[in-house]
Amino acid sequence: MLRKMWKLLPLLFIFSASSVRADLVHRLSTSTSLTVGGASTISERIGSTYAVSGSNIKVDTSNSGHFGTMTAATATAAAAQDLGTYDVNTAGSAFSFSESWTQGDAVNTIGAGVDVSADGLVVDMPAFGITTTHAGGVKGSLAGTILSSGVLTLVAGGSNTSAVGQFVSEITVK
Fold first, then answer.
1. How far apart are CA 125 and CA 77, in angstroms?
2. Mean pLDDT throughout 62-66?
3. 27-44: buried (b, 16+ CB within 10 Å) or exposed (e) per residue?
4. For residue 121, what pLDDT is reported?
5. Whose CA is closest to 53, among 102, 101, 96, 103?
6. I need a labelling partner for 78 at 20 to 30 A (CA). Which of 11, 33, 98, 105 fits?
7. Which of 121, 150, 114 is nearest to 27 (CA)?
C-alpha cells in the first residue's frame, strides 16, 4: 500500500496550490466640471478701397472731371468716395469700364461698441466690417452632484454652458 502512495506523490505536487503573493490596488475617483461661458466680441475694422479700370475711357473734362478718388480719412471718419466723371475716348469704338468701392468703418469713440447685460448677454456690438460675437452663458439650472456611492447627477443649464461628470474605477494587480 505504501508503494502505491509513492506513485501518487508526483500527482500531489502537480495538483497542490502554489503560494502566490500579489498586491491589489482599487482606486475610485469622481469629478464634475460646470462651466458658464463669458461673452466675447472680436471686431476687425475695414478700410475704404476704390478701384477703377477700363479701356477706351477718358476723364470727362467738360465738368472739372477727374477719375474717382477717396477723400482723406479723419481721426473718427473713414475715407469717403469722390465720384469721377468719365467719357468714351474714341466714339464708336469698343470700350470697357469697371469701378468698385468699399466704404470703410468709422472709428468708434472709446467705450462705445459692446455692452453686456448683467446676465451675460451681448445687447449691442460695434458695426465694423467683420464682427464675431459670442453670447455670454446663462447659468439657469446648471448643477452637478456626486453621491458617496459614485452616482452622478448633472442638470443642463442655459445657453453657452457645459456640465461634465466622470466616475472612474481602477483595479491594479501587481
1. 18
2. 75
3. eeebebebebeebebebe
4. 63
5. 96
6. 98
7. 150
- The C-alpha atoms of residue 46 and residue 33 are separated, in whole angstroms, by 40
Q: What is the pTM of this model?
A: 0.48
Answer yes or no: do 105 and 156 share one domain: no
Contact of 41 with 133, CB cutoff 8 Å: yes
Beta bridge partners of 30: 167
- On whether residue 160 sits in a domain, the answer given is yes
Longest distance between any two alpha carbons in the chain, whole Å: 139
- Its domain, for residue 71, covers 44-133
Shared domain for 26 and 65, answered yes or no, is: no
Q: What are phi and psi of 28, to 5 degrees?
A: -115, 135
Q: Answer yes or no: is 65 within a domain.
A: yes
Number of domains in the chain: 2
Phi, psi of 46 (to 5 degrees): -105, 150
